[in-house]
Amino acid sequence: MPMIYALLDKEALLKKGLSLQQLAEKIESLHIPIAQYRHKSGSLQEKQQDLQLIKKYFRGTLIVNDSIELIEFCDGLHVGQEDIRAFNDNLETAVSIIRATIGKKLLGLSTHNLLEITEANDLDLDYIGLGAYRGTSTKAEAKVLGEEALVLAKSSKHPVGLIGGVKLSDQFEKQITYRVIGSDLYED
Fold first, then answer.
1. Within 10 Å of residue 154's Cβ, how many Cβ atoms?
2. Among 16, 142, 144, 165, which lies 20 to 30 A Cα-Cα from 133?
3. pLDDT in tens, 15-24
4. SS3 letters across 54-116
5. Beta-ladder partners of 79
6. Are the CB atoms for 33 and 3 separated by under 8 Å?
7. Angle at the Cα of 124 (from 148 to 112), degrees rounded to 5?
8. Structural domains in the chain?
9. How far, in Å, CA of 188 to CA of 165, rounded?
């Protein structure tokens, strides 16, 4: 069964009236090995404080979304398709620039289709995120791949984290390494 990769989305938590501490404690109690912190609108100072708070309660691997400036406070970086191209339009060059900053820490890249997966196969990545598997309220604009995502995952040379409406109860075949779960961790 694929490992759980928790998604700690600050905006989503605030909408639900939950704190990062509450979710960090919960994912630690569930022995979830890896988590990603995402906060699209926060300042660097706020994000740094959030990462330090999460680390107080969660002993697993902590990935930061997009904010390479905060790599010293976590174990890896996850970037989206637009974000990686902000480093350089040539993806291999972009990854080299990122690796010069993060070193051997984990690096993940969001993918949404076969072309992006094929491009990712040639990059020095530790995993890809693939989705959206199902529709979600947090990313309403995301194209839902459904079962096609499971077929696409077989094309990846990297471990695959399936994202987008993934539930704790979902079970997938070996082509999926991580079940990336956000709201299903805190919705009853």
1. 12
2. 16
3. 999 999 999 9
4. HHHHCCCEEEEECCHHHHHHCCEEEECHHHHHCCCCCHHHHHHHHHHHHCCCEEEEEECCHHH
5. 109
6. yes
7. 20
8. 3-185 (3.20.20.70)
9. 15
